[in-house]
């Protein structure tokens, strides 16, 4: 949740903020020992606001608005969302911040780091409580360049339901029209393939396929040995995703999937279409790779098999990624 910040001040700020959320008194010795520190301005601001010192808001927000990384800008925009609790802040101002904030959200629902995600989602949740209404409906119409329409109905029965449609036109101008009185958040995500990049990254992935090419089995079994490694300066990463595409005609072995789910650092394993998605809770910077194994079985014979891509990326910052390919080793 600290987003790569490894100092004790940041963790102290989060714990102190949680205590204040539980209505612990600011005079409590445990809370009092959580003194604000400059190493973590955003959590420090949250504690100041929750602790009943809104007079410090303007000074701290001015500091946070100075030029810096995207992460810093996101945190400085996230915590003003908490200000609707203050009588001097109007919802019109907060709504402008919300519009900017949702544009920073990636296609997976997160933000640029775990720390930013904690800040932003808490801010959006608080804003939603301030604008909540038991009445109202809205219709969102998305017009595609080719003339097709996609309608999304938002009402009291489905207002918490995530709705998604696949758009067929990859080029052109889309238009979005909203009619009604209910609040709705609309996001467009474009997914596309690129050649395997060779740029430097803090992540790396290697795949070694092993198979008995002399076997007469009608369903050849390939063992994929994966090596994932983090080369960055931090002690550990955010959550890491390993996206393993199947060779054409192959499928993961169910028993092997079960073993993979119980492997080191693996929080979760999903299968989607012809992909296996492995969620690693983190990759420590230990200058050694972490090994995982998955067996895949050929269900349908396919001639002239093409290589399959394996991608590793940071869940909260997908631009930090690496890719490699593997092939069926038998001729």
From TrEMBL:
<dbReference type="InterPro" id="IPR050473">
    <property type="entry name" value="A2M/Complement_sys"/>
</dbReference>
<dbReference type="GO" id="GO:0005615">
    <property type="term" value="C:extracellular space"/>
</dbReference>
<dbReference type="InterPro" id="IPR009048">
    <property type="entry name" value="A-macroglobulin_rcpt-bd"/>
</dbReference>
<dbReference type="InterPro" id="IPR036595">
    <property type="entry name" value="A-macroglobulin_rcpt-bd_sf"/>
</dbReference>
<dbReference type="InterPro" id="IPR008930">
    <property type="entry name" value="Terpenoid_cyclase/PrenylTrfase"/>
</dbReference>
<protein>
    <recommendedName>
        <fullName>Alpha-macroglobulin receptor-binding domain-containing protein</fullName>
    </recommendedName>
</protein>
<dbReference type="Pfam" id="PF07677">
    <property type="entry name" value="A2M_recep"/>
</dbReference>
<feature type="domain" description="Alpha-macroglobulin receptor-binding">
    <location>
        <begin position="237"/>
        <end position="326"/>
    </location>
</feature>
<feature type="region of interest" description="Disordered">
    <location>
        <begin position="30"/>
        <end position="54"/>
    </location>
</feature>
<dbReference type="InterPro" id="IPR011626">
    <property type="entry name" value="Alpha-macroglobulin_TED"/>
</dbReference>
<dbReference type="Pfam" id="PF07678">
    <property type="entry name" value="TED_complement"/>
</dbReference>
